[in-house]
Each structure stands twice: as C-alpha cells, then as structure tokens.
Amino acid sequence: MKSLFFIGGIGTILILLLICVFLFSEASNFFKTYGLIDFLAGSAWKPGMHPELFGLLPLLFGTAAVTLGAIILAVPIGILSAIYIAELAGPKTAEILKPSVELLAGIPSVVLGFLGMALLVPIIQRTFDLTTGQTALTGSVILGIMALPTIISVSEDAISSVPLPLRNGSFALGANHWQTIYKVVIPAAFSGISASVILGMGRAIGETMAVMMVTGNMAIIPGSDVFLSSVRTITATIALEMGEVARGTEHYYALFAVGVILFIMTFCINLIADAVKRRHQLEV
Amino acid sequence: MASENGTKPKKSAARKRRDLYQKTAFLFMRMAIIFVVLILLVILADIFMKGHSVITIDFLTQMPRNQMTEGGILPCIIGTVELVVLSLLIAVPLGIISAIYLTEYAAEGKIRWTVEQAVNNLAGTPSIVFGLFGMALFIKYIGLPRSLLTASLTMGLLIMPVIIRTTQEAMLSVPKEYREASHALGVTKWETIRRVVLPTAYSGIITGIIISIGRAAGETAPILFTGAVYYYPRLPDSVFSPIMALSYHLYVMATESMNIEATRPIQYGTALVLLSIVFIMNLAAVGIRRHYKKKVMRSN
Fold first, then answer.
1. Please, which pLDDT band fits residue A219 given cuts at 50, 70 and 90?
2. Of the candidate ranges A222-226, B29-33, B204-208, B219-223, the one whose mean pLDDT is the lowest
3. How far apart are the C-alpha atoms of B277 and B75, rounded to whole Å?
4. Given A85, A209, A270, which is nearest B121 (Cβ)?
5. What local confidence, expressed as pLDDT, does residue B162 receive?
C-alpha cells in the first residue's frame, strides 16, 4: 500500500517535471533559428511579417502594465477588507463575508471578461473620450477584481492567526483598537500580508481570458498614456495565436518560448510567496 | 483624573485625536468591504437580470441555429458536463492518493518538501501553460486528436492541486487520537486510513471536489487548443470528438460572433448558466462545511 501512495506523491513531481520538459524542449527549437537576445530584447512582435519578428518586450510591457495597475487598485481595498473581516466583523457577518469572497474568487474569468466587455469598456471609452475602451486600465480593473479574493483571504488568514496575548498586551498598555491593529497586529502579520500581495500578483500575471477580452491586444509599447492605450499581455499572445499557428513552425515554437517566460515568472513568484510565508511561521 | 488640572485637556485632546484616527480607519475598512460586496452584487445582478429572460426550455435543449445567432446551447451544456466528469475521474483518484501520501506516509524530509513544492507550483501555474503543455504532450507528442479526452486530461491536471490541498486539509483536521485509538486496537495503518481517517475527512474531501467542479466548468484557457471548438454540429459521440463548452462558447460569442451586439442575449444566457453552475457548487460547498462543523461540535 505504502508504495502505491509513494508513487502517487511522486506523480505530482513527475507532472511538474513533464510540464518543464515539454515547455523547454519545444521552446529550445525556437532558439535554433532565432537568437535569444533578439527574443528577450526585441521590441517588436510581428509574427505575420517578413521577416517575422518575435520580440518579447511589448508583451512583457503589457503584462507589467496591467499587473501593476491591478495591484495598485486591489492592494489597499483588499488589505482593508481583510482587516475588517478579521478584526471588526462579528462572527455572523464574517460567516457571510467569507463565502462571498470565495464566490468572487470562483467567478470564471471568461464571465468577468465578458462583463468587462459589456459594461466596463463602454464606460472607460466615454469617460476618457477614447476611440476604444479596450485599454490597459480596463484590464487592470478586471484583474484587480480577480486579485482581490486572493489578497483578502490570505491576508485575513495571517491577521486572524496573530496570537491573542500580543493583542491583549497592547490593550493592557492602554492602546485602542486601531492602535493595536496598526502597531501590533499588522506588523505581526506583515509577512502573511506580503505573501497575499505576491500571490495576487501571480494570479494577475497568469490570468488569460479576462485580460485578453478587455485590453485590445495591440502588441505595441505605447508612447504615452500607458493605461489608456491598448496593450497585449504574454498570456493573451499565447491564447490568441496558438489556435491559428501551424504546428512545428517558428511561430509555434516562439509561443512556447513565451510560455517558458511566463512559467518562470509564476514559478519564481510561487517560491517567493512560499518563502515569505514560511519566514512568518518561524517568527510566530 | 479631574484633580490633575492642566493635564486633563491635553490628554483628552490626544484621546480625541486617536479616536478620530480610529473612526477614520474603520470607516475606510467599511467602505472597502462594502465596495467588494458591491462588486460581487453588481456582477451577479447584471448577469441575472439580463440573462434570465433568455433562459427557456428551448434555450437549454436545442442546438444553435442560423450560424449560432439563434437557438439553444444544448451541446455546450453537455460538453461542459462531460468535460467536468472526465477531468474529475482523472484528478480525484490521483489527487486523493497524493494527499494520503503527504499526510499519512511521507516523513519530514527532502522528498516530502519536494512534493509539497510541486503541488504548490502546480497550483500556481497559469492555466494557459497547462493548455500549452496539453497541446505539446497529448496532441503533438502522443498524437491524440483535439478532443474531449485531451481537454479532460489537461483540465484534470489543472484541478488536481485543488483536490490534493483540500483533501490534505481535511485529513489533517482528523484528530490524532482517532488514529492512535485505531493503532492501539492493532489495526494496520492502511486499515486505519480507510476506516477511520477517510470517513472522518469525507465531507472536507467532498467540499474540495465540489469546488473543483466549479473550477473545471469555468476555466477556458486550458481547453482553447486542446479540444474546444467554435461549432460542432452533433453532440459528441465519443471521447475522441471535439466539444463545445459553455465557457468557450461565451468567449467566442463575445469576441468573434457574426454580430456581437445582436447575440448579446445569447451571451448573457450562456454566462448565467455558467455562473449558476459555479454559484450552486459554491453554495453546496459552504453548506456541507457548515453542516459538518455543527456535527463535529455536537459530537465533542
């Protein structure tokens, strides 16, 4: 029996390894014909042109722009909400709020993308008087909504797990509730809260459908007004082009190279978030 | 306090200020959480109000007609159900086995750490990367056709970490005394797991499975190039035929349809059906968790 379960456990490592092997080996075919530097530092992504250009920079820029926007929007709202659920809400309110946050996390990204197209895109177009409402800002708002549940639930966990004696000590010294939260609870939960932000970022970077439906997908680095321009993310590029490309062409392998970059980014983010969380556990 | 004249007004000014800070801070927190709940309500209300009038028996039981501008979404519903069932068939056994290994058998050490990191990273890997992997392995390397089978295999790998984590959590919450009592009676480890730990962790495991049903129904990126198609004129007859799915249908109708504005009602209807599945699954998970919590509290 034991060996069966051992094989099952090892299976997860095997799957991760297989993902690495297939991504990297397909991507390596790309670098047989295309220079690594031209890929990493190339500022144009033009697959249909002659010569075909596969520069990563515009895609990296798109991903960075929408992720940054999403984090700026989601972090304050998310952390404040987490403190509310952990510190202020009564048990009954928390029992409604927590499943609501879970439900928000469960809404499929394609549904959020669809609503983004139907509701948000026209609003942004009208507000900023643009030719199209499909912008980096639109993507940031939708991604922010998607990152919120991650930030809220991980932060809330960290805040709730701050030991009671720490709080009581602060109250005993005459501090009020907010002072206790601000000077004791938040510093004690700081690494958990940081982990929540990193994980939220990971979610935003890896998100595909919603972002692809609302950002306009122009693979150009905008000269000005970054957030009001159309951008194209790494994920959207793979999703949009993989369906149409012929298997075994340079373009096909280029998409795997892009996938490798995405995989490395999220892999590092996961490791960092885990390390930050672990440090927190050691401290408490 | 009142006798210490001179210090009293100073103190109360400081106290007033700190009360004001507290009030302001708490106000911001309330505003933030109200905003979050509002987002959720707007999403649910908009989809429900614009989608419910589209949902008729015909919409749920008919094939799409007239280049998908009319008719129903039956093949998408069936495709999604088949996809969910098959991917669960793959992910649930594998996931539970890995979770049992991690909680019951793995000793603290390098192997266990590596397995845990692997699960962690699989859970954080973007769904589009799973799509790429599924395409490279199942379609290009093994040579399977783009089909229900390849889509389900890919989706199964994606939801496996969810199953592993929730099962692990459920098994860890089984009190150590239960295991010790069973061991003390001379029962073997495997029998203890089978007859004591798994039955006690049952509802937690079911909750995890229900959550992954919602996830598998809603994910789109992994099936984009492993099995979902724009239009397939028949209901799928084998695991080797391609499928239509609710999530993919919503995507293509919203972005590539012949007339995006004219088919908005169909899009809202599809979104409502998809959201209802996720919503019901989430409610069921919450319900089971609550029921189970009460049971544990009563038995203690």
1. confident
2. A222-226
3. 16
4. A270
5. 93
B31-68 pLDDT tens trace: 999 999 999 999 999 999 999 999 999 889 888 887 77
- pLDDT tens for B236-288 read 778 899 999 999 999 999 998 778 888 899 999 999 999 999 889 888 888 88
- Residue A82 CB neighbour total at 10 angstroms: 30
What stretches of B135-263 show up as alpha helix (H) in DSSP? 148-172, 176-184, 189-192, 198-218, 246-255
Residues of B in contact with A113 (CB under 8 A): 251, 254
Contact A213 B255 (CB under 8 A): yes
Query: Tokens for B117?
Result: 């990191």
Residues of B in contact with A273 (CB under 8 A): 124
* Closest Cα in chain A to B284: A99
Mapping DSSP onto H, E and C, the string for A199-267 reads: HHHHHHHHCCHHHHHHCECCCCCCCCCHHHCCECCHHHHHHHHHCCCCCCCHHHHHHHHHHHHHHHHHH
Give me B166's structure tokens. 């929730």
Is B187 a residue whose pLDDT tops 80? yes
User: What CATH number is associated with residue A41?
Assistant: 1.10.3720.10
Task: Compute the mean pLDDT over every residue in chain A, rounded to the nearest whole number.
Answer: 92
For chain B, the C-alpha Rg in angstroms (whole number) is 26
Residue B136 has pLDDT above 90, yes or no: yes
HSE at residue B106, side-chain half, CA atoms within 13 A, is: 23
Contact at 8 Å (CB) between B154 and B137? no
| Domains in chain B: boundaries | 1-51, 57-299
Closest approach of B111 to chain A, Cα-based (Å): 8
ipTM of the complex: 0.93
What is the spatial distance between Cα A5 and Cα B264, in angstroms, rounded to a whole number?
Answer: 49
Give the pLDDT mean for A19-26: 95
In the numeric block, the tokens 């993310």 are attached to A233
A85 pLDDT higher than 90? yes
**Alpha-carbon distances of A126 from A57, A119, B13, rounded to whole Å:** 30, 11, 48
Domain B57-299 carries which CATH code?
1.10.3720.10
Q: Give the number of domains in chain A.
A: 1
Structure tokens at B186: 């001379």
**Segments forming the whole domain that contains residue A217:** 2-283
Structure token digits, residue B93: 């056994």
